[in-house]
Amino acid sequence: MRFTRDELHGSLADPVLGTIGFLNEVMARYPEAISFAPGAPHLTHLGDFDLARHVESYLAYAAERRGLSPDRARHLLYEYGPSRGLINDLVARALDLDQGLGISPDAVVVTVGAQEAMLLTLRALCRPGRDLVAVVQPCFVGITGAARLLDIDLVAVDETADGIDLDGLRTACRAARADGRRVRALYVAPDFANPSGTVLDLATRRRLLDFAAREDLLLLEDNAYGFTAAPGSGLPGLKALDEDARVVLLGTFAKVCLPGARVGFAVADQTVCTADGSRRLLADELAALKNMVTVNTSPISQAVIGGMLLENGGSLAALGRDRATLYQRNLGLLLAALDRHLPPGAGRPAGVSWNRPAGGFFVRMRLPIPADTALLDECASRYGVLWTPMDQFYLDGSGADELRLSCSYLDPEQIGEGVARLARFLREVCP
Amino acid sequence: MRFTRDELHGSLADPVLGTIGFLNEVMARYPEAISFAPGAPHLTHLGDFDLARHVESYLAYAAERRGLSPDRARHLLYEYGPSRGLINDLVARALDLDQGLGISPDAVVVTVGAQEAMLLTLRALCRPGRDLVAVVQPCFVGITGAARLLDIDLVAVDETADGIDLDGLRTACRAARADGRRVRALYVAPDFANPSGTVLDLATRRRLLDFAAREDLLLLEDNAYGFTAAPGSGLPGLKALDEDARVVLLGTFAKVCLPGARVGFAVADQTVCTADGSRRLLADELAALKNMVTVNTSPISQAVIGGMLLENGGSLAALGRDRATLYQRNLGLLLAALDRHLPPGAGRPAGVSWNRPAGGFFVRMRLPIPADTALLDECASRYGVLWTPMDQFYLDGSGADELRLSCSYLDPEQIGEGVARLARFLREVCP
Predict the structure, then answer these.
(1) Which of B315, B347, B373 is the C-terminal boundary of a domain?
(2) Which residues of A18-47 are buried (b: 16+ CB within 10 A; e: fewer)?
(3) Following DSSP, what letter does each residue of B361-415 receive, concatenated?
(4) CATH code at B157?
(5) What is the value of ipTM here, to two decimals?
(6) Closest to B232 in 3D by CA, of B128, B166, B139, B321
(7) The predicted structure's pLDDT at residue B319
(8) Are A308 and A325 contained in the same domain?
(9) Does the pLDDT at position A405 exceed 90?
């Protein structure tokens, strides 16, 4: 049987979904290229990863805590298990140890990566044709893609020098209200956002929380890269500053532990009043929806993450500090290599510039020519270097002259060599 | 922050989502009860489950097949991995060995359980406000719940003595067309459907495929319970009879391997013609959507399932045959206990009846009184027996006098004792 794509759901024609396929295809076509494209974590930290040991650590804990025999504890791995998760207590404890959140395990839903947490949260909060979601542009494609899949309309809010264009967001909120609609939430990554690398300072974080209260918005906080801050420079997350349950925290274990476990979480401590007068948490609603998406997160995967937390005193930050050293080093090497190979003056084509994030996985570069898939293909085939075109991170088709360089999973010599090649390529193709 | 549920997505108020929460809550409240409620597989088969060994079996295969060093093969567990899956070749081979499907691994998408396969398939096929999905009623709640979550309208088609009311479905297709809409697909479980236990005979399967071609429908085949057929009695699945890629097969490893891995799959070999004239498979579209739901299925979980397949000659059916013996035994014990404890005549309240499926996990019972949550609560608190009210399996509020008894994960003495208690309860409460 054959049909045309316009017989399928519209999200499949969205460039956001198409670009991921294109990038995977380019990477498969040039397996030997030095790739600044994917934001994957470095594997060096997994030298001591021992699947069976991590699982056993968790099972020993679960047996003791729940008063189970070793055999019965092992059954936890085999069965479906609760939709909301098995390791919610460990997630809540890590968030308390690391950020002082003091939230109940009942407010946690363990998800298949932060991506499922985004999908569930968007679905719970948005009624079709009624609720809009605002995103800070440029924006992680996972949230825009999930919104497209759910037919949720998005509003783009621009980044500014000091953070977010709140005037623009206020205007969008009012326009929505005038239209009988509502901007329900703002998705924001306050720490080294993907792809911009921007950090919101403390005053901006507080202003954002005030703004959310005034305009009756929720904030969907994605803090995947907060752990990469230089020692002593980390700021409290929005959820840590949140006194009125305005923030839903979307979390991941992919960057600090490992992507292959596919474990993330949502913290959703908002109160929902049901028609029969009972009260529940937004987390309960997310868990109900999760029954219809993945039923539950693999208990094997949860045990792996639970074991890693337990072996590190229950703290995710303790694991993250160790990892952060490498990412700080790689980012420093990437910025130094750019300075060295594209020095100001004759060595740097006019119109080539980049930002200097203090953490995270990414540097954002601007070119005097379109940084599109045709340019990427040329750079890959002739210079063996890959990067990510930025237009997919914009809702409005801007960003066409920007590219994203990720340094997270490369080794020092690859970073140096990759930037040297990229510099030669840019000197050749830029006018 | 607090809000009312009518500020949330409408699916959260749907009884289908609510009932799952209620059942979990009842089971948690009566942990000592004999539960005929959940359709979970028996754990006895997992006596020899060795997580590390299964993973190593898969890694040895992957290393050899892809020419990877052992270290590099191990990295497959750590990384994100392709959205469409890692073990697609093993899934395709198992389907070929077991059912002669002869499909390409490219037509397979590995998913987080069959549930995610349902969600992705519904999403790809249905445009908002335009496409409808038909389901055979009573119907597995996973498909109705996923449709609700995606705002997809459903059409109920009744079961008949010999299968499916195709006249009713034809009428529904015509009514949709007259309304400028389209019934895009029919969800059907041809073998021991959950919850009805019905099996479509071979002639009905062929008639259904002809019907689908004539009315231009897709068939979404869920074959979770096919492996429980008595030896020699299995019928070819719809996908095995499908000559025109009319069938999307939604598969699970939960019942034969283990639920805890959360691995399922879709086989979607339909051709999609894109606007630029290129062709791809529906499986490619499902994989693109999966990026926005769970990114990819945990490679650790996939390695577990891959290892189990490899250790059984690549066949899922070989594993399933072993398991089927227990389910055949349990079903026989359940039916015999019902006959014994509710004998015709004075021992059986008027209006109490049940069906006699030849396989699967479930028996469906009809009562002369509402089999609702109040009755369940009474049965649990006073007789220590749990079951599943059936109204959630109907779209139209019927089925209120039916309950489902699952025998899959109980032991013989529990089945006997549970039915004895249920019989006493029914004699007490039925008029």
Answers:
(1) B315
(2) ebbbebbebeeebeebbbbbbbbbbbebbe
(3) SEEEEE-SS---HHHHHHHHHHH-EE-EESGGG-SSS--TTEEEEE-TT--HHHH
(4) 3.40.640.10
(5) 0.97
(6) B321
(7) 92
(8) no
(9) yes
In the structure encoding, which two tokens stand for residue A322, read together?
A: 């160790």
Q: Where does residue B106 rank: exposed (0-12), middle (13-18), buried (19+ CB within 10 A)? A: middle
Q: Looking at residue B70, what is its pLDDT?
A: 92
Chain B residue with minimal CA distance to A140? Answer: B292
CB-based contact B127:A8 (threshold 8 Å): yes
Q: What is the pLDDT of residue B28?
A: 81
Q: Give the residue from A4, A6, A9, A25 with the most B CB atoms within 10 Å of its CB, the best one to mutate.
A: A9
pLDDT of A313 > 90? The answer is yes
B3 to A126: CB separation less than 8 angstroms, yes or no: no
Is residue A273 a contact partner of residue B12, using CB atoms and an 8 Å limit? no
- What is the identity of the amino acid at A50? D
- DSSP helix/strand/coil, B421: helix
Q: B352 and B213 in one domain?
A: no
CA atoms within 13 A on the CB side of B359: 25
Q: Kindly determine whether residue B77 and residue A21, on different chains, have CB atoms separated by under 8 Å.
A: no
**Does position A45 have pLDDT exceeding 90, yes or no?**
no
Find the domain containing B24 and state its range: 5-45+319-429
Count of pairs with CB atoms under 8 A, one residue in A, one in B: 268
Distance from CA of A170 to the nearest CA of B (A): 20
Q: Look at residues B294, B315, B336 and tell me which one is the last residue of a structural domain.
A: B315
Could you tell me the CA-to-CA distances from B9 to A127, A213, A279, B140 in Å, in that order?
5, 21, 17, 22
Residue B224 sits in the same domain as residue B303: yes
| pLDDT surpassing 90 at residue A161 | no
SS3 state of residue A366: strand
For residues B355 and B251, state if they share a domain.
no
If asked whether residues B28 and B60 sit together in one domain, one would say no
Q: How far is A324 from chain B (nearest CA, A)?
A: 18
Residues of A with CB below 8 A from B119's CB?
Answer: 292-293
Q: Would you state the pLDDT for residue B17?
A: 83
Residue A47: predicted pLDDT: 84
Q: Residue A4 and residue B108: Cα distance in Å, rounded? A: 20
User: Smallest Cβ distance to A2: which of B113, B123, B271?
Assistant: B271
As a residue count, chain A comes to 431
Instruction: Report chain A's mean pLDDT, rounded to a whole number.
Output: 95
CB B131 within 8 A of CB A9: no
pLDDT in tens, A105-121: 999 999 999 999 999 99
Average pLDDT of A278-301? 96
Decide if pLDDT at A371 tops 90.
yes
Q: Chain-wide mean pLDDT for chain B?
A: 95
Domains held by chain B: number = 2
Least confident of A14-23, A95-104, A350-359, B153-162: A14-23
Instruction: Give the pLDDT of residue B161.
Output: 79
pLDDT for B113 equals 97
CA separation for the pair B335, B358 (Å, rounded): 10
Q: Any idea what the CATH number is for the domain that residue B357 is in?
A: 3.90.1150.10
Report the C-alpha gap between B310 and B61 in whole angstroms. 8
User: Which secondary structure element, helix H or strand E, spans residue A362, and what is its range?
Assistant: strand A362-366
B419 and B291, same structural domain?
no
Give yes or no: residues B222 and B152 share one domain: yes
Residues linked to residue A186 through DSSP beta bridges, in sequence order: A134, A219
Q: Is the pLDDT of residue B20 over 80?
A: no
Residues A211 and A249 in one domain: yes
Which residues, 6 or more positions from B304, have their beta carbon under 8 angstroms from its beta carbon? A300, B51, B54, B55, B58, B257, B258, B261, B263
In a mutagenesis test of the A interface, which of B2, B4, B6, B9 is the best target, namely the one with the most A β-carbons within 10 Å? B9
Neighbours of B29 (CB within 10 A): 12
